[in-house]
Amino acid sequence: MEEDFSFLSHISAVSSTVKSVLGLSESLQVTMKSEPTVEEKGIVDTVIEPFEYTVVIRNEDLKQMLESNKDSAKLDAMKRIVGMIAKGKNASELFPAVVKNVASKNIEIKKLVYVYLVRYAEEQQDLALLSISTFQRALKDPNQLIRASALRVLSSIRVPIIVPIMMLAIKEASADLSPYVRKNAAHAIQKLYSLDPEQKEMLIEVIEKLLKDKSTLVAGSVVMAFEEVCPDRIDLIHRNYRKLCNLLVDVEEWGQVVIIHMLTRYARTQFVSPWKEDDNLEENSEKNFYESDDEQKEKIDKIKKSYAMDPDHRLLIRNTKPLLQSRNGAVVMAVAQLYWHLSPKSEAGIISKSLVRLLRSNREVQYIVLQNIATMSIQRKGMFEPYLKSFYVRSTDPTMIKTLKLEILTNLANEANISTLLREFQTYVKSQDKQFAAATIQAIGRCATNISEVTDTCLNGLVCLLSNRDEIVVAESVVVIKKLLQMQPAQHGEIIKHMAKLLDSITVPVARASILWLIGENCERVPKIAPDVLRKMAKSFTGEDDLVKLQILNLGAKLYLTNSKQTKLLTQYILNLGKYDQNYDIRDRTRFIRQLIVPNEKSGALSKYAKKIFLAQKPAPLLESPFKDRDHFQLGTLSHTLNIKASGYLELSNWPEVAPDPSVRNVEVIESAKEWTSVSGKAKKVKPDEKFYSESEEDASDDSSDSESETGSESDDEENEEAGSDESSEYSSDESDSESDNKNQLAKCKSKTTEESDPDEKTNSKLQSSDASDSESSSIEESSSDSESDTESDYESKKISQKEEKKTWPERKPNKKDVSLLDLDDFNQVSTPVAVLTPAISPGLIADLEGLNLSASSSVINVSTPIFVPMKTHELLHRMSGKGLAASYHFPRQPCIFCDKMVSVQVTLNNTTDQKIENIHLSDQKLPSGMRMHMFSPIESLEPGGSITVAMGIDFCDSTQTACFQLCTKDDCFNVNIQPPVGELLLPVAMSEKDFRREQGLLTGMNETSATIIASPQNPTPPMILEKIVNVANLGIVPSGQDNIHRFAAKTVHSGSLMLVTVELKEGSTAQLIINTEKTVIGSILLRELKPVLSQG
Q1: What's the whole-model pTM score?
Q2: In what order do the strands lie in the sheet with 885-890?
Q3: What is the DSSP code string of 148-166?
C-alpha cells in the first residue's frame, strides 16, 4: 500500500481543509490507534480535571449516563469518553457499560461506540471479543451504514482467533447489495491479509469477485486490495481492464491514484514500447543531400506503419488525459507518471503544463512535483523549456524548494538561455541562505562544464567570488574552480597564483585542501610559489585539520620529487612531524611517502616509479546531476523521492518484445433485454406461504428510519451522501435466533467449547427502497442508481454462484448456522493450519461472557493493562547446546489465552544452521505437583536462518519453581527449563484509593511485610519510583491524594490474591516499603527484589 498509493497523495491530504481530510479518511477507512482524529477532538466538550481521583468518580457518573433511557444522556457520555481517550486517559474499565450500547438505534451513539471499541480492541483483546456476537448481528442489519461500520470495526480487532469470523463476514459483505458495504469489504481484505497471510487464496477469490463489480465506489478499494494481496496476479485484470479504464473518470480521487498506478504496471507487461517509433524518426529526421521532400515523407510514413499502437493502449492514454485537470495533485502526478512511462515521447509534452500548475500549491506538493520534474528534465529538456521562468527562485521559497528549482534550471541550461540563467545565478549567490548560495556556485560549475562557450566566463566569475566576505561562498568557489582547472590546467597559471595568496585568509578545511592539491598538481608551472606555500604550511602543520595535513604531505612529496634542492629539508621536517601525529591515517601516509620518495637501502622497486605515481595525470571530474540515476524508479513513488528502494515497491517491467495475446481482454457482452426477461421471469417465482416483507423486517426498517431521522449531524450527512444510503438497495435477513448467541456454556481450560444452535430459516433477500433525501447530490444519485441496477441484474447469478460454492466446499454443512464466538471449532476444517496453535476460549473469558449482566455495574477492582512491558529475553536453549537451534523466551504481561490461571510466555525459536530443522515440539514435562503447562503445537519445519515466535502458558501455582521439560526436534531432545521472576506472577489491577485502604486494612499482621530503605537521591521523584517498580513487577498504579505516598496493586495469576505495595517517602532520604498480601512467600520475595532497586540510583 505504501508504494503504489503515491507519496504525493499523503501530502495532499495533509494540506487540505479539515472537511476534505475527514472525507478522505472516511473513504480510506482510517482506523484510530493511539492518536485521536480531528473529528474526535471536535467532539470533546469537557475538560478533564488533572487529578486522578476525580476520574474514578466521573467514571461512575458516566456508567449511570450510559445506562440511562435517554439517548441524549448516552450521547453526552460517549462524547465525554471519547474526549478522555483523546486526552490519553484510560477508559478501559467502562468497556462493559459502553458495549451495551452497540445495539443502540441512535446512529451517532453507535458511531462513537465503534470508535471506542476500535481504540481498545488491540490492547484489550479479551474485552474486544465480548462484542463479536453483537457485530455479527449488526452485519445483517437493514441499514447499510450499520452493516459497513460493523465490518469496519470487526476487521480492526487484531485478534488471530477471529480470523474465520472475519473471513466469513468479508465473503458475505462482498455479495451485499449496497456498494458502500462492498467497498468496506474490500478495505477489510487488506486488514485480514496483514493479520493472517495464510488466508491469501480465499481472499483472492473475493478480490476476483469484487473486480467484476461495476460500481465506482468499489473500484478503487478493490484495486488497492489487489495491489496489497496479489499484485502479481495480472490475469485477474485482463477481463476488467477496459471497464476500469472507462470507470476511471468517475472514481473518487483516492481510487483514481491507485488504479492509475496499477494500470501503469499492467500496460508495461501487455503492450510493446511506443518509443521505437520516436527513436526511428529521430534517426531518420536528417534529410540526405540528394533526397527530395517526397522521398523523405514516404520514408517517415513507412516507419510509422511499422508500429501500430494497441487500441487498449490508446484507450488508457485517452481516458486518463482529462484527469490532468484534476484539483487533486496526487491524481495529476499519477497521470503524469503514466504518460512518462507509457505514452509516445511526442505526446508526453502535455503533462508539463499540468505539473507547472501544481507549483502554485503548498510547499510539500511543490517539493514532490519539482523532484519529478528534475528527473524528467535530464532526459527531455524540451518539455519544460517554455516554462523556464516558472522555476525562478522566490525569496519566500524554503531552501529545499530553492535547491530543486536551481537543479531544474541547471538541467534546462543551453546556449540560448545560458546568459539569462547566469544573470539569475549572480543574484542567487548573494542570498542570505548560505546553503543555497553554495548550491548556486556548484550549478555555475556544472553549466561551465556542460556548455563550453561559457566556461571562461563562469571561471572568471568564480574567481571574482574569491574576494567575497562570506567564507562559505569563497570555500565553495575554490572547490568548484579546482574541478574546472582540472579540465584545462595549462591555461590558468594566474588563477592558481591568486588562489595561493588566499591560504592566509581562508580557514575552511575543504577549501585549504583544494588549494594545496591544485598547487601540488601544478607545482612545475608555479616553481617559485609552491616552495613558499610549503614553508608556510610547515609552520602551521600541527594546528591544521587532518584533511589539510594529508594534502601538505602530498605537496611535500611532489616538491621533493620535482624541486628537491629547495624543499628537501622542509619535506623531511614535515615527515618527522607527521610521524608522531595523533591521527593514524597521517602516520601511515607519512611512512608510505618516506619509503617511496626517500631513497635508502631498504627501498623497493616502487621508489623508481615515485614520480610517475605522484605526478600522474588525473582524470577530470564529471559534474553530474544528483537526479541522474533516479529514472529507474517509477515517478511519483516513495522510492523515487528517497532514491532508494522502499518496502513494498513494485518495479516497472521492461517492455515486451512481442505483445501478448490481446484477446484475453475481450469480454462477452450479454444483451440487456435478455437480462431483464430472465430477472423478471425468476422474480415471479415466490413461495405462496411467505410474505414479500416479513414483520421482523418491517419493524427493523421502521426502527432504522426513526433512528436516522433523529440524528442530523454533518458527519452523518457526509456518510449518508458517500454511501448513497437513501438510493441504494438494502437487504435484511431473519434474526430470530440472535438471543441464543448470549447463552454460552462454561468449559475448562483444555476442553474445547461447542455450542448447539437452531439452524437458520432460509429466507430470500428482499429489496427495500426509501425516498431520496433533499441533502443528496446528483452525482451520488447517479452512482447509487447505477449500482442498484447492476446489483438487480446480477441478483439471480449471485444466488446460483452461492449454490455452486456450496458444492465445491464439502466441509460446509447444508444448513448454514450463525457463527458465534464459541463456534470457532467449525472453522478448523476450512482454515489453513499455522505454526501457532489456535487456542480454545479460556474459562475466564467464558465466565466474563456468561456473567455480563447488562443492568449490573462493574466491580471496583478490575484487571487493567500493564503499564510497562519489559523486552528483556531469557535464554532457553543456546545454539551450541541445541546443535544450531536457539531458543529464548520472555513474558508479554498479558492474560493467558489458554487459561486464566496460566502465565503467558512467548518463545522465539531461531535456526542458526544452514539446514532445515524439522518437527520442533515439546515433550517429557517434569513439573512439580499442581503445576500445568499448555504446549505449543509442533512446528513442521524451520528454514535455515528462519525464526518463529510461538505462545505457551504455564501455571506456576503462584510460586517461583522451575518448569522443566524437553525441547525436541526430529533427531534430538534438549532439557530446558523456565523459572519466572516473581514480578511476572502478577496481573495489574485498577482500584480507587478508598478500596486500596479497605483491602489493606484486611491484610495486616502476618500478611504485611515491610522494610526501611535508604533511597537514592535520583529516586524520590514519582516518575522514577514508577519506572523502577513496574520494571520489576507487573503492578498497576492506584491514585493517591498524598505526594509522598505511592500505591500499587496487583493480583496473583493463579489464585487471584491481592498484592498491595506502598512506598512512603519520609524526611531525609529514607523510605518505607510495605507489602500486604495473603501470599506471604511471594510478598517477601518481592520485597527482597524491590529493596535494591529503590536503593540504587
Answers
A1: 0.54
A2: 874-877, 885-890, 903-911, 947-955, 932-934
A3: HHHHHHHHH---GGGHHHH
Q: What is the DSSP string of 892-945?
A: --SB-SS-TTSEEEEEEEEE-SSS-EEEEEEEEEE--TT-EEEPPPPEEEE-TT
What are the extents of the domains in the chain?
53-123, 143-230, 493-617, 874-980, 986-1095
Contacts of 713 (CB under 8 A, 6+ apart): 108
Determine the 3-state secondary structure of 1073 from DSSP: strand
State the Cα–Cα distance between residues 596 and 610, nearest whole angstrom. 6
Residue 419 amino acid letter: S
Q: Which fold has domain 874-980?
A: Immunoglobulin-like (2.60.40)
Cell matching residue 665: 481482454
Q: What type of residue sits at position 605?
A: A
Q: What CATH number has the domain spanning 986-1095?
A: 3.30.310.10
Residue range 1061-1070, pLDDT digits in tens: 999 888 777 8
Q: How many CA atoms lie within 13 A of 727 on its CB side?
A: 24
Torsion of CA 281, 286, 287, 288, to 10 degrees: -120
| Dist CA 1040 CA 1048 (whole Å) | 10
Q: Residues 435-479: pLDDT tens digits?
A: 899 899 989 988 888 887 888 788 888 888 877 777 788 888 888
In three-state secondary structure terms, 975 is strand
Quick: pLDDT tens for 1008-1052: 888 888 877 665 677 788 888 888 999 999 988 888 888 999 999
Residue length of the chain? 1097
**Helix, strand, coil share (%) of the chain residues, nearest 5:** 55, 10, 35
What is the grid cell recorded at 921? 515440539
- Beta bridge partner(s), residue 736: none
User: Cβ distance 361 to 333 under 8 Å?
Assistant: no
Q: Residue 531 class from Cβ within 10 Å (0-12 exposed, 13-18 middle, 19+ buried)?
A: middle
HSE-CB at 601 with a 13 A cutoff on CA atoms is 0
Beta strands in 276-415 (DSSP E): none
Say which amino acid occupies 100. K
Per-position DSSP letters for 26-39, written without gaps between them: HHHTPPP-SSPPHH
Residues forming beta bridges with residue 1075, ordered by sequence position: 1009, 1061
Distance CA 371, CA 366 (A): 8
What nine digits make up the cell of 296? 523523405
Closest CA to 765 of 799, 789, 807: 799
What percentage of the chain has pLDDT greater than the value 70? 72
